[in-house]
Write a structure and sequence with these properties.
Blueprint: E1 14-22, H1 28-36, E2 54-62, E3 65-73, H2 83-98, E4 101-107, H3 118-121, E5 128-133, H4 140-153, E6 158-161, H5 170-179, H6 198-213, H7 218-221, E7 223-231, E8 235-244, H8 247-254, H9 259-276, E9 279-288, H10 296-301
Parallel strand pairs: 1-3, 1-4, 4-5, 5-6, 8-9
Antiparallel strand pairs: 2-3, 7-8
Helix pairs in contact: 6-9
Bound molecules: guanosine-5'-triphosphate and magnesium ion (MG).
Protein backbone atom coordinates (compact mmCIF):
# COMPACT_ATOMS: atom_id res chain seq x y z
CA UNK A 1 0.00 0.00 0.00
CA UNK A 2 2.98 2.25 0.62
CA UNK A 3 3.98 4.51 -2.27
CA UNK A 4 7.71 4.30 -2.08
CA UNK A 5 9.39 6.69 -4.41
CA UNK A 6 12.18 5.39 -6.64
CA UNK A 7 14.28 8.49 -6.19
CA UNK A 8 15.66 10.11 -3.07
CA UNK A 9 13.64 13.27 -3.72
CA UNK A 10 12.11 14.55 -0.52
CA UNK A 11 8.30 14.50 -0.68
CA UNK A 12 6.24 17.54 0.11
CA UNK A 13 3.76 15.48 2.11
CA UNK A 14 3.37 14.59 5.76
CA UNK A 15 1.85 11.23 6.70
CA UNK A 16 1.91 9.05 9.75
CA UNK A 17 0.23 6.87 12.33
CA UNK A 18 -1.05 8.42 15.52
CA UNK A 19 -2.00 5.89 18.20
CA UNK A 20 -4.53 6.76 20.86
CA UNK A 21 -3.74 4.76 24.00
CA UNK A 22 -5.00 4.84 27.57
CA UNK A 23 -7.07 3.16 30.25
CA UNK A 24 -10.74 2.27 29.62
CA UNK A 25 -13.27 5.10 29.65
CA UNK A 26 -10.82 8.02 29.58
CA UNK A 27 -12.30 9.32 26.30
CA UNK A 28 -10.10 7.81 23.56
CA UNK A 29 -12.97 7.15 21.17
CA UNK A 30 -14.54 10.53 21.83
CA UNK A 31 -11.19 12.11 21.01
CA UNK A 32 -10.67 10.15 17.81
CA UNK A 33 -14.12 11.07 16.54
CA UNK A 34 -13.59 14.75 17.25
CA UNK A 35 -10.13 14.72 15.64
CA UNK A 36 -11.39 13.01 12.50
CA UNK A 37 -14.70 14.85 12.47
CA UNK A 38 -16.73 11.68 11.97
CA UNK A 39 -18.58 9.30 14.25
CA UNK A 40 -16.42 6.24 13.62
CA UNK A 41 -15.95 4.80 17.09
CA UNK A 42 -18.77 3.99 19.43
CA UNK A 43 -18.84 5.77 22.78
CA UNK A 44 -20.57 4.76 25.99
CA UNK A 45 -20.15 5.58 29.66
CA UNK A 46 -19.14 1.96 30.31
CA UNK A 47 -15.51 0.84 30.40
CA UNK A 48 -14.19 -1.49 27.68
CA UNK A 49 -16.52 -0.25 24.98
CA UNK A 50 -13.91 -0.40 22.21
CA UNK A 51 -12.61 -3.89 21.37
CA UNK A 52 -10.68 -3.29 18.15
CA UNK A 53 -8.07 -1.03 16.65
CA UNK A 54 -10.05 1.36 14.47
CA UNK A 55 -8.29 3.70 12.11
CA UNK A 56 -9.69 7.12 11.35
CA UNK A 57 -8.00 8.97 8.49
CA UNK A 58 -7.83 12.73 8.16
CA UNK A 59 -6.48 14.38 5.01
CA UNK A 60 -5.79 18.07 4.70
CA UNK A 61 -3.24 20.79 4.29
CA UNK A 62 -1.27 22.49 7.01
CA UNK A 63 0.84 25.60 6.30
CA UNK A 64 1.06 24.74 2.63
CA UNK A 65 1.98 21.07 3.15
CA UNK A 66 -0.61 18.38 2.47
CA UNK A 67 -0.93 15.75 5.18
CA UNK A 68 -2.56 12.43 6.00
CA UNK A 69 -3.07 11.66 9.66
CA UNK A 70 -3.99 8.07 10.44
CA UNK A 71 -5.38 7.94 13.95
CA UNK A 72 -5.86 4.58 15.67
CA UNK A 73 -8.46 4.30 18.38
CA UNK A 74 -7.65 1.30 20.58
CA UNK A 75 -9.23 -0.69 23.42
CA UNK A 76 -8.58 0.55 26.95
CA UNK A 77 -5.58 -1.09 28.61
CA UNK A 78 -6.72 -3.83 31.02
CA UNK A 79 -5.20 -6.85 32.71
CA UNK A 80 -6.59 -9.72 30.64
CA UNK A 81 -9.26 -11.81 32.34
CA UNK A 82 -10.42 -13.50 29.12
CA UNK A 83 -8.84 -14.49 25.83
CA UNK A 84 -10.88 -11.65 24.37
CA UNK A 85 -8.88 -9.19 26.48
CA UNK A 86 -5.61 -10.73 25.33
CA UNK A 87 -6.65 -10.12 21.76
CA UNK A 88 -7.68 -6.54 22.61
CA UNK A 89 -4.26 -5.93 24.15
CA UNK A 90 -2.61 -7.33 21.01
CA UNK A 91 -4.38 -4.56 19.08
CA UNK A 92 -3.01 -1.98 21.53
CA UNK A 93 0.54 -3.30 21.23
CA UNK A 94 0.40 -3.44 17.44
CA UNK A 95 -0.81 0.11 17.34
CA UNK A 96 2.02 1.28 19.62
CA UNK A 97 4.61 -0.43 17.47
CA UNK A 98 3.33 1.30 14.31
CA UNK A 99 3.07 4.73 15.87
CA UNK A 100 4.80 7.84 14.61
CA UNK A 101 3.18 9.76 17.44
CA UNK A 102 1.50 8.37 20.58
CA UNK A 103 -1.40 10.15 22.21
CA UNK A 104 -1.42 8.83 25.74
CA UNK A 105 -4.89 9.81 26.94
CA UNK A 106 -5.49 10.26 30.65
CA UNK A 107 -8.38 11.82 32.50
CA UNK A 108 -8.35 14.29 35.37
CA UNK A 109 -9.37 11.65 37.92
CA UNK A 110 -6.37 9.40 37.30
CA UNK A 111 -3.22 9.18 39.42
CA UNK A 112 0.08 9.46 37.58
CA UNK A 113 2.23 7.38 39.93
CA UNK A 114 2.47 3.68 39.00
CA UNK A 115 0.04 4.19 36.14
CA UNK A 116 -0.67 0.84 34.42
CA UNK A 117 -0.06 2.16 30.92
CA UNK A 118 3.48 3.45 31.55
CA UNK A 119 5.27 0.09 31.06
CA UNK A 120 3.45 -0.39 27.74
CA UNK A 121 4.58 2.97 26.41
CA UNK A 122 8.13 1.66 26.42
CA UNK A 123 7.16 -0.33 23.30
CA UNK A 124 6.88 2.85 21.31
CA UNK A 125 9.88 4.57 19.74
CA UNK A 126 7.61 7.47 18.87
CA UNK A 127 7.26 10.70 20.83
CA UNK A 128 4.56 10.61 23.48
CA UNK A 129 2.05 13.41 23.81
CA UNK A 130 0.24 13.19 27.10
CA UNK A 131 -3.36 14.24 26.65
CA UNK A 132 -5.10 15.27 29.85
CA UNK A 133 -8.80 14.85 29.09
CA UNK A 134 -12.04 15.83 30.83
CA UNK A 135 -10.74 19.17 32.08
CA UNK A 136 -14.35 20.38 31.94
CA UNK A 137 -14.86 18.39 35.15
CA UNK A 138 -12.18 20.39 36.90
CA UNK A 139 -10.69 23.87 37.31
CA UNK A 140 -7.53 25.60 36.13
CA UNK A 141 -5.66 25.13 39.39
CA UNK A 142 -6.30 21.40 39.50
CA UNK A 143 -5.35 21.02 35.84
CA UNK A 144 -2.00 22.75 36.50
CA UNK A 145 -1.32 20.46 39.45
CA UNK A 146 -2.23 17.37 37.45
CA UNK A 147 0.08 18.42 34.61
CA UNK A 148 2.89 18.84 37.13
CA UNK A 149 2.10 15.42 38.61
CA UNK A 150 2.42 13.82 35.16
CA UNK A 151 5.62 15.69 34.37
CA UNK A 152 7.25 13.85 37.28
CA UNK A 153 6.51 10.35 35.99
CA UNK A 154 6.37 10.38 32.20
CA UNK A 155 8.82 11.47 29.56
CA UNK A 156 6.26 13.21 27.39
CA UNK A 157 7.17 15.58 24.56
CA UNK A 158 4.18 17.72 25.56
CA UNK A 159 1.29 17.65 28.00
CA UNK A 160 -1.91 18.95 26.49
CA UNK A 161 -5.06 19.54 28.55
CA UNK A 162 -8.30 19.09 26.60
CA UNK A 163 -11.96 18.29 26.79
CA UNK A 164 -12.84 15.89 23.98
CA UNK A 165 -16.51 16.07 24.85
CA UNK A 166 -16.62 19.87 24.56
CA UNK A 167 -13.98 20.13 21.80
CA UNK A 168 -11.81 22.32 24.02
CA UNK A 169 -8.17 22.81 22.98
CA UNK A 170 -8.53 20.25 20.17
CA UNK A 171 -7.06 22.66 17.62
CA UNK A 172 -3.86 23.03 19.68
CA UNK A 173 -3.60 19.27 20.01
CA UNK A 174 -4.03 18.91 16.25
CA UNK A 175 -1.27 21.49 15.62
CA UNK A 176 1.15 19.61 17.85
CA UNK A 177 0.33 16.29 16.17
CA UNK A 178 0.51 17.47 12.57
CA UNK A 179 3.85 19.21 13.00
CA UNK A 180 5.32 16.00 14.43
CA UNK A 181 4.35 13.88 11.42
CA UNK A 182 7.27 12.69 9.30
CA UNK A 183 7.61 13.74 5.68
CA UNK A 184 6.18 10.71 3.93
CA UNK A 185 3.84 10.01 1.01
CA UNK A 186 0.24 9.09 1.93
CA UNK A 187 -0.48 5.51 2.99
CA UNK A 188 -4.16 5.46 1.97
CA UNK A 189 -6.24 6.86 -0.87
CA UNK A 190 -7.45 10.29 0.07
CA UNK A 191 -11.14 9.25 -0.18
CA UNK A 192 -10.68 6.58 2.46
CA UNK A 193 -11.89 7.38 5.93
CA UNK A 194 -11.02 4.17 7.74
CA UNK A 195 -9.43 0.75 7.38
CA UNK A 196 -12.60 -1.06 8.47
CA UNK A 197 -15.39 -2.31 6.18
CA UNK A 198 -19.00 -1.13 6.37
CA UNK A 199 -20.08 -4.34 8.09
CA UNK A 200 -17.79 -3.57 10.98
CA UNK A 201 -19.52 -0.25 11.64
CA UNK A 202 -22.92 -1.92 11.39
CA UNK A 203 -21.95 -4.39 14.11
CA UNK A 204 -20.44 -1.63 16.27
CA UNK A 205 -23.57 0.51 16.10
CA UNK A 206 -25.69 -2.43 17.29
CA UNK A 207 -23.16 -3.22 20.02
CA UNK A 208 -23.33 0.38 21.20
CA UNK A 209 -27.08 0.03 21.69
CA UNK A 210 -26.51 -3.16 23.70
CA UNK A 211 -24.03 -1.30 25.91
CA UNK A 212 -26.55 1.48 26.42
CA UNK A 213 -29.61 -0.67 27.15
CA UNK A 214 -28.35 -3.47 29.41
CA UNK A 215 -26.55 -3.64 32.68
CA UNK A 216 -23.98 -5.76 34.47
CA UNK A 217 -22.40 -8.51 32.40
CA UNK A 218 -24.74 -8.42 29.38
CA UNK A 219 -22.78 -5.86 27.31
CA UNK A 220 -19.51 -7.64 28.06
CA UNK A 221 -20.93 -11.07 27.19
CA UNK A 222 -22.34 -9.89 23.88
CA UNK A 223 -20.85 -9.83 20.41
CA UNK A 224 -22.53 -8.78 17.18
CA UNK A 225 -21.89 -10.62 13.93
CA UNK A 226 -23.26 -9.29 10.66
CA UNK A 227 -24.44 -12.31 8.66
CA UNK A 228 -25.82 -10.35 5.74
CA UNK A 229 -25.15 -6.86 4.39
CA UNK A 230 -26.83 -6.24 1.06
CA UNK A 231 -26.91 -2.81 -0.46
CA UNK A 232 -29.83 -2.26 -2.80
CA UNK A 233 -30.79 0.88 -4.71
CA UNK A 234 -33.24 2.07 -2.11
CA UNK A 235 -32.05 0.44 1.10
CA UNK A 236 -29.49 -1.69 2.89
CA UNK A 237 -30.60 -5.06 4.23
CA UNK A 238 -28.68 -6.01 7.35
CA UNK A 239 -28.98 -9.26 9.29
CA UNK A 240 -27.19 -9.40 12.60
CA UNK A 241 -26.59 -12.17 15.07
CA UNK A 242 -26.18 -11.14 18.66
CA UNK A 243 -24.08 -13.72 20.44
CA UNK A 244 -24.36 -14.17 24.20
CA UNK A 245 -22.70 -16.63 26.54
CA UNK A 246 -25.67 -18.19 28.36
CA UNK A 247 -29.38 -18.94 27.80
CA UNK A 248 -30.37 -16.64 30.70
CA UNK A 249 -28.61 -13.78 28.94
CA UNK A 250 -30.52 -14.56 25.77
CA UNK A 251 -33.76 -14.19 27.72
CA UNK A 252 -32.72 -10.85 29.18
CA UNK A 253 -31.53 -9.57 25.82
CA UNK A 254 -34.81 -10.41 24.13
CA UNK A 255 -36.97 -9.17 27.00
CA UNK A 256 -40.65 -9.71 27.59
CA UNK A 257 -42.34 -10.46 24.27
CA UNK A 258 -39.23 -9.25 22.52
CA UNK A 259 -39.60 -5.72 23.86
CA UNK A 260 -35.93 -5.13 24.75
CA UNK A 261 -34.53 -6.49 21.51
CA UNK A 262 -37.03 -4.39 19.62
CA UNK A 263 -35.81 -1.28 21.45
CA UNK A 264 -32.20 -2.08 20.51
CA UNK A 265 -33.29 -2.61 16.91
CA UNK A 266 -35.17 0.68 16.67
CA UNK A 267 -32.26 2.67 18.13
CA UNK A 268 -29.67 0.86 16.02
CA UNK A 269 -31.62 1.27 12.79
CA UNK A 270 -31.90 5.01 13.34
CA UNK A 271 -28.12 5.34 13.73
CA UNK A 272 -27.41 2.92 10.89
CA UNK A 273 -29.55 5.03 8.57
CA UNK A 274 -27.69 8.17 9.62
CA UNK A 275 -24.30 6.48 9.25
CA UNK A 276 -24.94 4.97 5.81
CA UNK A 277 -27.22 7.80 4.70
CA UNK A 278 -29.73 5.26 3.42
CA UNK A 279 -32.84 3.42 4.55
CA UNK A 280 -31.97 0.29 6.52
CA UNK A 281 -33.88 -2.92 7.01
CA UNK A 282 -32.49 -4.59 10.14
CA UNK A 283 -33.15 -8.11 11.34
CA UNK A 284 -31.62 -9.36 14.59
CA UNK A 285 -31.28 -12.86 16.01
CA UNK A 286 -29.91 -13.86 19.38
CA UNK A 287 -27.75 -16.95 19.69
CA UNK A 288 -25.98 -18.59 22.62
CA UNK A 289 -22.34 -19.47 22.19
CA UNK A 290 -21.12 -20.72 25.58
CA UNK A 291 -18.04 -18.87 26.85
CA UNK A 292 -17.16 -17.39 23.46
CA UNK A 293 -14.87 -14.84 25.15
CA UNK A 294 -12.53 -17.65 26.17
CA UNK A 295 -12.53 -19.62 22.93
CA UNK A 296 -9.80 -18.94 20.45
CA UNK A 297 -11.64 -20.32 17.42
CA UNK A 298 -14.73 -18.24 18.17
CA UNK A 299 -12.68 -15.11 18.70
CA UNK A 300 -10.96 -15.68 15.39
CA UNK A 301 -14.32 -16.12 13.71
CA UNK A 302 -15.52 -12.83 15.23
CA UNK A 303 -12.54 -10.87 13.93
CA UNK A 304 -10.18 -10.90 16.92
CA UNK A 305 -7.42 -12.59 15.01
CA UNK A 306 -4.62 -10.10 15.07
CA UNK A 307 -2.08 -12.35 16.75
CA UNK A 308 1.30 -10.98 15.84
N1 LIG B 1 -16.97 15.18 31.06
C1 LIG B 1 -16.33 14.64 30.04
N2 LIG B 1 -16.66 13.41 29.64
C2 LIG B 1 -15.99 12.89 28.59
C3 LIG B 1 -14.99 13.59 27.89
N3 LIG B 1 -14.53 12.81 26.90
C4 LIG B 1 -15.22 11.65 26.98
N4 LIG B 1 -16.11 11.68 27.99
C5 LIG B 1 -17.07 10.65 28.39
O1 LIG B 1 -16.35 9.54 28.90
C6 LIG B 1 -17.04 8.31 28.62
C7 LIG B 1 -16.12 7.35 27.91
O2 LIG B 1 -15.79 7.86 26.64
P1 LIG B 1 -15.15 6.96 25.50
O3 LIG B 1 -14.73 7.86 24.41
O4 LIG B 1 -16.05 5.82 25.16
O5 LIG B 1 -13.89 6.39 26.28
P2 LIG B 1 -12.80 5.31 25.79
O6 LIG B 1 -11.49 5.72 26.36
O7 LIG B 1 -12.86 5.14 24.32
O8 LIG B 1 -13.31 3.99 26.52
P3 LIG B 1 -13.04 2.43 26.13
O9 LIG B 1 -13.41 2.22 24.71
O10 LIG B 1 -13.92 1.70 27.08
O11 LIG B 1 -11.58 2.17 26.43
C8 LIG B 1 -18.26 8.70 27.79
O12 LIG B 1 -19.37 8.81 28.64
C9 LIG B 1 -17.87 10.08 27.23
O13 LIG B 1 -18.97 10.91 26.95
C10 LIG B 1 -14.69 14.93 28.33
O14 LIG B 1 -13.85 15.65 27.78
N5 LIG B 1 -15.39 15.39 29.41
MG1 LIG C 1 -13.35 3.53 23.16
Amino acid sequence: MENSSATDQPVNFRAGFVSIIGKPNVGKSTLMNVLVGERLSIITSKAQTTRHRIMGILNGEHQGTPFQLIYSDTPGVVKPAYKLHESMMTFVKGSLEDADVVLFVTEMGEKAADHEVLPLLKRADAPILLVLNKIDLSNEEEVKLKMEEWRQVVDAAEIIPISALHSANIQSLFEVVVTRLPMHPPYFDTEELTDKPERFFASEIIREKIFLNYRQEIPYSSEVVITEFKERDDMIVIRAEIIVERPTQKGILIGEKGSMLKKVGVQARKDLEAFFDKKVFLEQYVRVEPDWRSKENKLRQYGYNNND
